Amino acid sequence: MSAPSAISEVVSALERAYPPALAESWDAVGFVCGDPAEPVSRVLFCVDPVAETVDEAVELGAQLIVAHHPLLLRGVHGVPADTAKGALVHRMIREGVALYCAHTNADSADPGVSDALAQAIGLRVTGPLAPNDDGVTGIGRIGELPEPEPFAVFVQRVADALPATVPGVLGAGDADRPIRTVAVSGGAGDSYLKQATAAGVDAFVTADLRHHPAGEHLAGSAAAPALVGLTHWASEWPWCAQASAVVAEAFAGNVDVHVSTRCTDPWNVRAERTSI
Prior knowledge:
Belongs to the GTP cyclohydrolase I type 2/NIF3 family. The protein is an alpha/beta fold and 276 residues long. It is built from ten helices and 13 strands. The model has no long low-confidence stretch (mean pLDDT 96).
């Protein structure tokens, strides 16, 4: 039997796939807590480092959590245990669970977050939506379906491809419009509406679409891409399987990988009007 792998070795494999240099300047990616020299036999992959996923890691006996979202995105001066994030840091340390976060570096990498979203939907990726200078990495992806399909059918395709959430999947556009070319951006993507329009795609799939930017986009031109709105968590969850495959391939038979299926989307109650 081979010697146990160290957490630092798993982090190195992840950073080869998702180079920290690709992260945005405002981002906080990398190792958050734990001892890089400790051995690791089990890793949990998730979107959000929150109480539910820390619970899951402890239950699984995982020594490392790999999360997409940073726990400490903004500068902090302390992590006291009587604060929400401080309590998580203290619990992970007590339980021997390390935390590593790959955020906008995973968004921009090739393949990255949006490639995983595109693959889940059934798109063949042709390039980035907002490319970096290399023309390969960058935010978002552009892809195409095997055959055109009506927008209403496409919206259902997206809903069927991703984990269920209480808010569900929403579409904005002509239900009969043929959809063949599609832009996707995991996470909040309405700042890329202009790029999606310039790309000439038929639809744009992203999360956290806001009322005014979406409305102004659709009113701007009859050729503007139809919009498919997701919850933030659902749009990025497919990346967990992609990242877990990186570790599974690098440490075959030596490190177990688990993808969290616990929905950490904050929207958990839905109500529809029952009276006229």
